[in-house]
Amino acid sequence: MVGEEGAFVLGWDEVLTDEELSTTLKVLCMSEEEFKEYKEQDGWEDDSGDEENSTLSNEALSRLKTPCKKLLYDSVLLTLESYRSDLKADEDLLNNKEAYKELSHREQQALHVRYGQKRILHQLLELVG
């Protein structure tokens, strides 16, 4: 369901791997009985009429059912914990011209990417929190 990388791709305005995330949330938030029924009814077939499989824009994420929001929220927290520094530390480094100049070009690029990733994750926390 998640793909080869085992990750979902988030953008500023929507989930870019929305079908995978939608299906994953749907399955993980099912009871055991619902899951068995889903499997027995060939639930893995295309069910594009289902509102949960629609594009996951930021607005749609904020309207998810509570169990799905909780699962996403907890997953985002775990992802943020995997970084060595927090959003504030990266922001401070970006704003500190002297310290920023001390970084190699590659480290500067990595800092910008890491900071952007964390901002998107924090935005997701606000949407589902």
Structure description:
The structure is a single chain. With 129 residues, the chain is mainly α. It has a single domain (18-128), classed as set domain protein methyltransferase, domain 2. Helix content is 62%, strand content 0%. It has seven helices and no strands. The chain has helices spanning 18-28, 32-40, 58-62, 66-81, 87-95, 97-102, 105-128. It starts with 17 loop residues before the first helix and ends with a helix. The model is unreliable at 48-53 (pLDDT under 50).
User: CATH topology, which one?
Assistant: set domain protein methyltransferase, domain 2
User: How many angstroms separate the termini?
Assistant: 24 Å
CATH class: Alpha Beta
**Shape field:** elongated
Number of domains: 1
Encode the helix/strand succession as letters. HHHHHHH
How many helices? 7
The radius of gyration over CA amounts to 18 Å
Q: Mean pLDDT score, rounded? A: 87
Major sheet, described briefly? none
Residues in helices, as a percent range: 55-70%
Q: List low-pLDDT spans.
A: 48-53
Please indicate the percent range of residues in DSSP E strands (runs of 2 or more).
Answer: under 5%
| Number of strand elements | 0
Structural class: mainly alpha
CATH A-level architecture: Alpha-Beta Complex
In CATH, the homologous superfamily goes by the name Rubisco LSMT, substrate-binding domain
